[in-house]
């Protein structure tokens, strides 16, 4: 079973994302900020990371930069999931190492589609 780390400071968003991802047969781990997420990755690197941008302690952009410097940090597929929707933010996220970008609010179809595009899921 593939694993996904859900990183968001909103417990509600993490709960919604977990429900969607578990329906797609992912085992989920949660983190409330980038610092917690980095610690979780150091314990066990996930297959995928669904990542919020705006969080306390360590934001999503700083997290993805730090992740990509870790020994196996190039392996997880990172999908930013945020309200930041201008091209400058999207470009910055992709340059920092994100693989895809999803706008909030999202639903199961959007997550499934993005995970298919990144190769995490097969098209049904």
TrEMBL record:
Keyword list (alphabetical) reads:
Phosphoprotein
Sequence ranges assigned to domain Response regulatory in this UniProt record: 3-119
Provide the protein name.
Response regulator receiver protein
PTM 4-aspartylphosphate: at which residues? 52
Swiss-Prot/TrEMBL GO biological process terms? phosphorelay signal transduction system
Please give the PROSITE patterns that the UniProt record associates with this protein. Answer: RESPONSE_REGULATORY (PS50110)
Which domain of life does the UniProt lineage start with? Bacteria
- Species annotation: Maricaulis maris (strain MCS10)
- SMART domains, from UniProt? REC
One family from Pfam that matches here is: Response_reg
The record's annotation in InterPro entries points to: CheY-like_superfamily, Sig_transdc_resp-reg_receiver, ST_Response_Regulator
């Amino acid at each position: 079973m593939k694993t996904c780390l859900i990183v968001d400071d909103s417990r509600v968003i993490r709960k919604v994302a977990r429900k969607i991802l578990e329906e797609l047969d992912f085992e989920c781990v949660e983190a409330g900020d980038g610092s917690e997420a980095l610690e979780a990755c150091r314990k066990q690197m996930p297959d995928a990371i669904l990542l919020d941008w705006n969080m306390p302690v360590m934001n999503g952009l700083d997290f993805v930069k730090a992740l990509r410097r870790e020994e196996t940090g190039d392996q997880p597929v990172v999908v930013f999931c945020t309200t930041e929707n201008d091209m400058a933010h999207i470009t910055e996220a992709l340059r920092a190492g994100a693989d895809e970008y999803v706008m909030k609010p999202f639903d199961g179809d959007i997550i499934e589609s993005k995970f298919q595009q990144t190769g995490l899921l097969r098209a049904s």
